[in-house]
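wait is this the right file?? whatever heres the structure
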């Protein structure tokens, strides 16, 4: 076990985003962290329905719920019109920023899948969410047409490998990815949990990450850099991130 596997803070990717400091709420999951190229702002990334511009985000750290930062995207009216959007929370918590700066080079790189969505059919993916932790499944439908994600984002349907639950309440926004030896391939973000589509069993609707990222960059004239998975691929896995 190398140093990168010894301590993974609770505010890693895969942990919960809360919308209040106390009490329970649905919230969602941090998919990844990234940086806005023009301003160097560090942002926590999730799907657009999890948290919207102006809302404060909280997350677990040690035994307490701490403020992570304030959402800077999407405005609620933008998300209503274009559901294929990212949530971005500008990270103001200094402990999180310190961890990200120190851990950037210690974990696997992230490659965002930008190829044809149809080519993902039957691919095996994993996810780590704050609701169901680590689950593994298969893409059972690509280019899903439900109207839920609008015209600018491909929908991808995932089924748990044993036809169980791939994601549920609390997992919204979590990253579905393909593990690799030296990097992970980011595929999509959890959008709607099981049971949302008639005749599709326990499948989960996800939004293609490349499309969500592209939509933000085009509409905001801004580039998001995602350099590391910050230990996401270690969650529920005893392997070193360097293996």
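ok assuming it is, sequence goes like this
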């Amino acid at each position: 076990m190398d140093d990168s596997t010894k301590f993974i803070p609770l505010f890693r990717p895969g942990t919960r985003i809360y919308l209040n400091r106390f009490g329970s709420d649905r919230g969602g999951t941090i998919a990844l962290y990234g940086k806005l190229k023009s301003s160097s702002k560090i942002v926590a990334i999730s799907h657009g329905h999890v948290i919207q511009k102006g809302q404060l985000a909280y997350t677990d750290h040690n035994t307490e719920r701490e403020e992570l930062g304030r959402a800077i995207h999407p405005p609620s009216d933008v998300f209503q019109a274009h559901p294929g959007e990212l949530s971005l929370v500008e990270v103001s918590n200094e402990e999180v920023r310190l961890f990200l700066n120190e851990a950037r080079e210690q974990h696997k790189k992230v490659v965002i899948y930008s190829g044809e969505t149809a080519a993902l059919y039957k691919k095996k993916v994993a996810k780590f969410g704050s609701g169901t932790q680590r689950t593994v499944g298969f893409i059972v439908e690509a280019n899903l047409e439900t109207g839920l994600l609008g015209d600018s984002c491909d929908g991808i349907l995932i089924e748990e490998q044993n036809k169980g639950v791939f994601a549920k309440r609390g997992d919204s926004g979590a990253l579905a990815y393909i593990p690799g030896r030296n990097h992970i391939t980011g595929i999509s973000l959890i959008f709607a949990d099981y049971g949302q589509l008639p005749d599709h069993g326990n499948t989960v609707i996800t939004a293609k990450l490349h499309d969500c990222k592209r939509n933000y960059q085009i509409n905001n004239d801004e580039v998001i850099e995602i350099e590391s998975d910050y230990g996401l691929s270690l969650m529920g896995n005893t392997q070193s991130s360097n293996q």
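Residues 109-213 form a domain with the Thrombin, subunit H fold (CATH 2.40.10.10). so i think its the right one actually
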